[in-house]
Amino acid sequence: MQFPSTLLENAVNEFAKLPGIGKKTALRMVLHLLKQDVAAVGHFSETIAKMRTDIKFCTRCHNISDGNLCSICANTLRNQQLICVVENIRDVIAIENTQQFNGTYHVLGGIISPLDGIGPDQLNIEPLIARVAHEQTEELVFALSPNIQGDTTIYYIQKKLQKYPCRITTIARGIAFGGELEYADEMTLARSLAKRLPVEQYMSH
Hints:
The chain is an alpha/beta fold.
């Protein structure tokens, strides 16, 4: 792709680094910005930069936050004794969009995957164990993608929690095995949350 300007080419190359954005789409985005006034483009770039420099992660659940605690952990109307364990922040957003869950979350930051070099020590598992131990958690709901790695992670954490009087469940198999949680439609995800199963029953399937 030939460009009449090095500045234009550099901008297109930066946009093309984003996931799912090819050179043609990146060019359309850059040309759109060129049509905007300078103040609007300045606001756009400042917003992105501020997001990257000022955003925080909740000290309790590791969700994205504007402060030390995210808005979910700080909400006294949420069931603070109910924790939904998810792989990443995209999954928090997907479940919140169902408007069917009124507990809190715990973002692991991934799942156990030895083939990818990801072990338990690289995930937010120990902080989860500490939460259950100190917060008198009543129920832990696993909402991990239903694949071998997700099941391995559930099994590992379940073993670590055996001595605590906490009900451990998982979302039902409304999500196809091998599917990714974030791509499930909201109705399917809501139904899987509502019909959650004890982990022992889930792991025996």
